[in-house]
């Protein structure tokens, strides 16, 4: 489970950043008093236009950033006071793979398994299952520097999942991928849900949201506009198109 309670994130702006923003404000409010809960066995979709605060929230959940106010817990552990325990519960995947170029795919996945102290037997079984699911055996011994974009994303997923996390965070995981690779990630999300894991993902692809999401939140200018189940959202839609409804909500949001 992920619990986000009254979370606010402020950044201090340098003089250069103030000048670039054409503003005298010394602080920028990226996220403002946001609360939501992601339940096990459900897929929670976090939506918003670029710059809305989505990635900031996901990075705070992953304990890469700390909230200025409020609290976040992952698997029962507070990400500020028990960050290491929270990270052990979590897999975090972004569109930027950040793989180690000199390692082969297998070497890299084994490295992360060792970091999480995965036993040799568990590593072998999980590696086989993940590589089967994502069709990775054909490039398992290639160096990461020689992989295509889709192969890199699959390798990153394997690295993310090798310690069998109970909470999985996907930040635009299918961005820029071909249809086949994107489909394999969608299949993985469905499988994680069926295994009772907590899944949160952001995406600009509304067809993926429509297909996968059990719960939905829309954020804009750091403010939470919508938070509820996907069924509730569909029942209140004023436009039959999910994309157009999303745009309507964003465009009609009050300006700060």
Question: What structural keywords apply?
Answer:
alpha/beta; four-stranded antiparallel sheet; six-stranded mixed sheet; single chain; 256 residues; 10 helices
Helix content: 25-40%
Number of helices: 10
Q: Which regions are unreliable across 5 or more consecutive residues at pLDDT < 50?
A: none
**Morphology call:** globular
In total, how many beta strands? 10
Mean pLDDT: 89
Strand content: 25-35%
For the record, give the distance between the C-alpha atoms at the N and C termini, rounded to a whole number.
Answer: 31 Å
The succession of helices and strands, N to C, reads EHEEHEEHEHHHEHEHEEHH
Q: What's the arrangement of strands in the largest beta sheet?
A: 6-7-8-3-9-10
Structural class, from secondary structure content?
A: alpha/beta
Give a quick account of the main beta sheet: strands, pairing sense, barrel closure.
6 strands, mixed
Radius of gyration: 19 Å
Question: What's the arrangement of secondary structure elements?
Answer:
Layout (H helix, E strand, L loop, with lengths): L1 E11 L2 H6 L6 E12 L4 E5 L6 H8 L7 E6 L2 E2 L4 H6 L1 E5 L10 H11 L4 H14 L15 H13 L5 E5 L7 H16 L3 E5 L3 H7 L2 E6 L2 E7 H7 L5 H11 L4
Parallel strand pairs: 3-8, 3-9, 6-7, 7-8
Antiparallel strand pairs: 1-2, 1-4, 4-5, 9-10
Q: What's this model, at a glance?
A:
This protein has 256 residues and is α/β, with parallel strands linked by helices.
Describe this structure in words.
The protein is built from 10 helices and 10 strands. Helix 4 runs parallel beside helix 6.
């Amino acid at each position: 489970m992920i619990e986000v309670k009254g979370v606010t994130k402020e950044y201090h702006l340098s003089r250069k950043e103030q000048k670039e923003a054409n503003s005298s404000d010394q602080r920028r409010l990226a996220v403002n008093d946001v609360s939501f809960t992601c339940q096990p066995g459900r897929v929670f979709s976090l939506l918003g236009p670029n710059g809305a605060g989505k990635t900031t929230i996901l990075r705070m959940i992953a304990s890469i950033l700390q909230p200025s106010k409020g609290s976040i817990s992952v698997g029962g552990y507070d990400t500020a006071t028990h960050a290491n325990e929270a990270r052990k519960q979590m897999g975090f995947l972004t569109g930027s793979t950040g793989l180690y170029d000199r390692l082969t795919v297998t070497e890299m996945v084994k490295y992360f398994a060792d970091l999480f102290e995965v036993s040799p037997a568990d590593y072998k079984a999980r590696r086989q299952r993940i590589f089967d699911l994502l069709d990775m055996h054909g490039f398992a011994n290639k160096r990461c520097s020689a992989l295509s974009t889709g192969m890199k994303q699959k390798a990153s997923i394997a690295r993310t999942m090798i310690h069998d996390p109970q909470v999985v965070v996907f930040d635009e995981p299918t961005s820029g991928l071909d249809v086949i690779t994107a489909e394999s990630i969608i299949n993985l999300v469905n499988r994680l849900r069926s295994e009772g894991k907590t899944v949160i993902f952001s995406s600009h692809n509304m067809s993926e949201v429509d297909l996968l999401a059990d719960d939905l939140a829309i954020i804009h200018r750091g403010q939470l506009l919508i938070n509820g189940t996907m069924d509730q959202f569909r029942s209140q839609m004023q436009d039959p198109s999910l994309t157009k409804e999303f745009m309507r909500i964003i465009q009609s949001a009050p300006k700060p």
